[in-house]
Amino acid sequence: MLKAFILGLQFLTRLPVNIQVDFQKKILAKTPAFFSIIGMIIGGIAAIVYYLLSFFNKDFAAAGAVLSLIIVTGGLHMDGLSDTCDGFFSSRSRERVLEIMKDSRAGSFGVISIVFDILFKYVLLKSMTIEAAIPALILSCAIGRTMIAMLLSFGKSARPGGMGEIFMSKNSKLYFAVTLLILIIIGVIISKYAFLIALFAAIIFSLMFMKYSYKIIGGVTGDVYGANCELSEIVALTVFLVLMR
Fold first, then answer.
1. Average pLDDT of the segment spanning 5-16
2. Is residue 24, in this structure, part of any structural domain at all?
3. How far apart are CA 236 and CA 243, in angstroms?
4. Do the Cβ atoms of 157 and 164 come closer than 8 Å?
5. What is the pLDDT of the chain when averaged over all its residues?
6. Is residue 20 situated within a structural domain?
7. How far is residue 128's CA from residue 122's CA, in Å, rounded to a whole number?
8. In terms of pTM, does the model score above 0.85?
9. What is the Cα–Cα distance from 101 to 103, expressed in whole angstroms?
10. Which parts of the chain span the membrane according to its record (predicted)?
């Protein structure tokens, strides 16, 4: 399982983890069990940046935290959000939407989605107290990655052989249960009821987003996982702002 954790960290982040692990499906399929932990690592780095820059002012702190999220992840999920919005808002056939989502070039809706994604996170973090922003960053990033594990467990691939499919296995639900349990235990310790409400809101949103994806393309893809991660983070941050500001 240590190999799965390392491979998950290498896949979901750009952190310099210089440990060689074979890129095998049987190992990749286990990585969702660690998605919540990896999310906490990502959020923890952003929280440290936020805290250090907060000695200057909250504008710098919020901007630095959002920028650090992009740097640490390499904009992986943000790219998925861009591709998903380009495809979903194209009003084309299922086949054409999937083609658009595979196109590496960002269209108008993709660019707009990235701008609003960054803007929403910046405004939400800027509006929080330092005491609220730090746990909110850690837990929202963990919630976002846990929602990826949930869609992997309960979703159907819209594109056979796609990147998202390599994380699926007969044990996907077990790995989701593991990462969810880890998230709940740590989340309740850190933030109690605010975390539970944020998690519940993210789950409801993710199920609705998955249903919408089924309507558009008949399933989910790697881009949809990324888009849902970004949007679930915003949902969670919004809840934390309302309950912890």
1. 90
2. no
3. 11
4. yes
5. 92
6. no
7. 10
8. yes
9. 5
10. 32-53, 60-78, 106-125, 132-154, 174-207
